Amino acid sequence: MSIKIDGLQKSYRSFQALKNIDLHIGTGLFGLLGPNGAGKSTLMKILSTILPFDKGSVTIYDHHLVKEGDKVRQLLGYLPQHFNVPTQFTGKEFLHYVASMKGVTNQQERNSQVEKLLEEVNLAAQANKKIKGYSGGMKRRLGIAQALIGNPKLIILDEPTAGLDPSERIRFRNLIEKLSKDHSIILSTHIISDIESSCENVAVINHGEVLFKGSTEALAEKAINVVWELTVPFSEYDQVEREYVIISSRKEKDQVVFRIISKEKPQGEVSPIQPTIEDGYMAVINGVTA
Ligand code: ADP
Ligand code: MG
């Protein structure tokens, strides 16, 4: 196990952001799923040692998160959700700066790490340009690069695909997939397709609680017998929207085909369907599971 979290609790004043988190995370790519406000960033900040917690125990590669904070920090790289880079730097200058902060003081060693990382995140051609001219995707890739300095065993990425356009998102996913071959990565997101192709294990959290942990297949199975395709005339759109948890809908002539979650078989023209990971996620979040 790379991370062991037991009985973790965290409050902001009287608001309980993490209620009682138990999670054991192995190697490879692990997805932390949950809607906005679920507690993902709070958990990731705690794992990165930048936020103290109230109760429970956390170890990272058998190191006590609090007592051995320095050791833990050497093992991990972190990309915060709100990652602000000083835009007057060039990408290369910024990576050199982060590397010195992380204790890579040998000039030669630093040069070689920075060059390698710029290649790895596909920014070598823009390395000497100022960050203020970078696109959102380029900034995110620079964010990954800074998290990789010092070759950490564990990489923590908090919503790394937020704000990326579709092609940047695909490029980003490929990079993550490549990195997951020789690093442990925890990635938080509320976009299921970010993890669909490459994560084996996920946890779903909401309101500071773990609602599900297991494989992506097991998550999809949570929606067996509760996900339906329901076809109604367009005039009944509002009624369906009021009655069911809707995953998606599409228009077909003057009818609407909804993909919905419901414990009972809905009235009307319905067919049961094979659930996807997203269906399982929606079922778990809405408390409507098989
Ligand atoms: P997520 O990353 O899943 O969107 P967060 O961990 O950022 O969730 O937030 C979880 C909850 O804690 C939210 O309700 C949020 O408003 C609250 N919260 C986060 N940070 C603070 C803070 N510094 N002070 C008070 N409440 C906070
Ligand atoms: Mg967040």
Textual characterization of the structure:
The protein is an alpha/beta fold and 290 residues long. The protein has two domains: 213 residues, 3-Layer(aba) Sandwich (Rossmann fold), CATH 3.40.50; 48 residues. 32% of the residues lie in helices and 30% in strands. It contains ten helices and 14 strands. The strands form three sheets. A six-stranded mixed beta sheet has the order 6-7-8-3-9-10, with helices on both faces. A four-stranded antiparallel beta sheet has the order 2-1-4-5, covered by helices on one side. Strands 12-13-11-14 form a four-stranded antiparallel beta sheet, with helices on both faces. Strand 9 and strand 10 form a beta hairpin. The radius of gyration is 21 Å and the shape is globular. The model has no long low-confidence stretch (mean pLDDT 93). Bound molecules: adenosine-5'-diphosphate and magnesium ion. The site of magnesium ion has 5 residues, from helix 1.
